[in-house]
Amino acid sequence: MEAAARKIIHVDMDAFFASVEQRDNPDLRGKPVVVGGDSNRGVVAAASYEARRFGVKSAMPSVVARRRCPDLIFVRGNFDKYKAVSQQIRQIFFEYTDLVEPLSLDEAFLDVTFAKKGKPSATLIAREIKRRIKDETGLTASAGVSYCKFLAKIASDEKKPDGLFVITPAEAEAFIEKLEVRKFFGIGKVTAEKLNRQGIYFGADLKQLDQQELVRQFGKSGVYYYNIVRGLDDRPVISSRERKSLGAERTFGTDYYLLRDLMEQMQKIEEELWRRLERAQKYGRTLTLKIKFADFEQITRSKTLLGKIDSEAVLHQTANQLLQNEEPFVKGVRLLGLTLSNFDEPQQEAVQLTLEF
C-alpha cells in the first residue's frame, strides 16, 4: 500500500442534538433523552447515550423507542439553536484550514495537510480542536484521523464518545482486513446483508472479490468497494458544496384521510419551504412530494417544470397537483414533505493540493 499524501480529520459531534439539550437543561443530564417526535408520533431525530443503552437510535419510530425505554424523555427540537452551535464549531475548524466539508450539522471532514495553525501533526490538531469544542461549547466530539476520507470517517466512530482514533498508512491494510463490512462507510445494511449471505463478513473476505465481480453485483458502486477495501480513496475534501435540494416536512399528531385536511396541512409545509428557499435564494424546477402512511409505508412523487418554481403561487399549485393525483387515501397519512431540487446552477470544481510524505 503506497504512502498517502493527505492528512484528513473527520470530526463527529457526540449525540449532537440531545447533547445540546442536556447542556442547556441540567435536569436532562444523565437521563435517557431523545429529540424529535413524542411518545406516540413521529421519529427520533437524535438519542442521548443514556437512551442508546436501551437500543434507542435515530430514525426509530417514537412508539418503538418508548417501548424500549419507558422512562424516555422526549424533547422538541430547536434546529435554529443547533445550527447556531454548528456554526460556532465550524468557525473553530476554519481557524485551522479552509478545506472544511460539512456532511451535516454535526460532522465534517477537514484537510489539514497544509494547516493554517497548530503543529504539523493531524493528530495533535484533532486533539486541539476537540479541546476547543469542549471549552467553547461545553460539548464533546469524536475525531478520526487518517490519510483519506473513508478511513477518517470510520476512525471517528471507533472510540465514541469523546474519542480520538488514528489510522496511519502503515496500519490501514491490517485495519481494513479486520473491519466488518457492515461498518464500511458507503456499504449500507442491505448490501452488507447480501455480502454476508455470500460468506463475506470482513474486509479480508471482500478483498477476495475482483473488480469485475463487484461491478457485476453492485454496478458502479463495485468500483468504490474494490478501492476502499484496499485503502484507496482519493476523494478530495470539498470546501464549498452547492446545495442540491431544499425541503420541509411535517409529522402529524393524527392520521389524515381527506384531501381537504391534507391540503390544509400542506399549506404549512409550503410556507416553511418557501421561507427556506427565499433565505437561500434557491429556485428549482423539480418538486418532490413525500407521503408516509400510518403503517410507515413511504412513497414519493415528483414533477419537473419547464421553468423554475420561483413564486409561492407556483409552489402551491404544483404541490397541490401532486397531492391531488394520489387521491383517494385509503390509508391514513402521518407525514407529508416537499423537496425542491434541480436548481440548474453551475458547480465549481474544487482543486485539491497534495503533499508527498
UniProtKB/TrEMBL annotation:
<dbReference type="GO" id="GO:0006281">
    <property type="term" value="P:DNA repair"/>
</dbReference>
<comment type="function">
    <text>Poorly processive, error-prone DNA polymerase involved in untargeted mutagenesis. Copies undamaged DNA at stalled replication forks, which arise in vivo from mismatched or misaligned primer ends. These misaligned primers can be extended by PolIV. Exhibits no 3'-5' exonuclease (proofreading) activity. May be involved in translesional synthesis, in conjunction with the beta clamp from PolIII.</text>
</comment>
<keyword id="KW-0460">Magnesium</keyword>
<dbReference type="GO" id="GO:0006261">
    <property type="term" value="P:DNA-templated DNA replication"/>
</dbReference>
<dbReference type="InterPro" id="IPR024728">
    <property type="entry name" value="PolY_HhH_motif"/>
</dbReference>
<feature type="binding site">
    <location>
        <position position="12"/>
    </location>
    <ligand>
        <name>Mg(2+)</name>
    </ligand>
</feature>
<keyword id="KW-0808">Transferase</keyword>
<dbReference type="Pfam" id="PF00817">
    <property type="entry name" value="IMS"/>
</dbReference>
<feature type="domain" description="UmuC">
    <location>
        <begin position="8"/>
        <end position="188"/>
    </location>
</feature>
<dbReference type="InterPro" id="IPR022880">
    <property type="entry name" value="DNApol_IV"/>
</dbReference>
<dbReference type="InterPro" id="IPR036775">
    <property type="entry name" value="DNA_pol_Y-fam_lit_finger_sf"/>
</dbReference>
<dbReference type="InterPro" id="IPR043128">
    <property type="entry name" value="Rev_trsase/Diguanyl_cyclase"/>
</dbReference>
<dbReference type="GO" id="GO:0042276">
    <property type="term" value="P:error-prone translesion synthesis"/>
</dbReference>
<comment type="similarity">
    <text>Belongs to the DNA polymerase type-Y family.</text>
</comment>
<keyword id="KW-0963">Cytoplasm</keyword>
<keyword id="KW-0234">DNA repair</keyword>
<keyword id="KW-0235">DNA replication</keyword>
<keyword id="KW-0239">DNA-directed DNA polymerase</keyword>
<dbReference type="GO" id="GO:0003684">
    <property type="term" value="F:damaged DNA binding"/>
</dbReference>
<dbReference type="GO" id="GO:0009432">
    <property type="term" value="P:SOS response"/>
</dbReference>
<protein>
    <recommendedName>
        <fullName>DNA polymerase IV</fullName>
        <ecNumber>2.7.7.7</ecNumber>
    </recommendedName>
</protein>
<keyword id="KW-0227">DNA damage</keyword>
<keyword id="KW-0515">Mutator protein</keyword>
<dbReference type="InterPro" id="IPR050116">
    <property type="entry name" value="DNA_polymerase-Y"/>
</dbReference>
<feature type="active site">
    <location>
        <position position="107"/>
    </location>
</feature>
<dbReference type="GO" id="GO:0003887">
    <property type="term" value="F:DNA-directed DNA polymerase activity"/>
</dbReference>
<dbReference type="InterPro" id="IPR001126">
    <property type="entry name" value="UmuC"/>
</dbReference>
<feature type="binding site">
    <location>
        <position position="106"/>
    </location>
    <ligand>
        <name>Mg(2+)</name>
    </ligand>
</feature>
<comment type="subunit">
    <text>Monomer.</text>
</comment>
<dbReference type="Pfam" id="PF11798">
    <property type="entry name" value="IMS_HHH"/>
</dbReference>
<feature type="site" description="Substrate discrimination">
    <location>
        <position position="17"/>
    </location>
</feature>
<dbReference type="GO" id="GO:0005829">
    <property type="term" value="C:cytosol"/>
</dbReference>
<dbReference type="Pfam" id="PF11799">
    <property type="entry name" value="IMS_C"/>
</dbReference>
<dbReference type="InterPro" id="IPR017961">
    <property type="entry name" value="DNA_pol_Y-fam_little_finger"/>
</dbReference>
<dbReference type="InterPro" id="IPR043502">
    <property type="entry name" value="DNA/RNA_pol_sf"/>
</dbReference>
<keyword id="KW-0479">Metal-binding</keyword>
<keyword id="KW-0548">Nucleotidyltransferase</keyword>
<keyword id="KW-0238">DNA-binding</keyword>
<dbReference type="GO" id="GO:0000287">
    <property type="term" value="F:magnesium ion binding"/>
</dbReference>
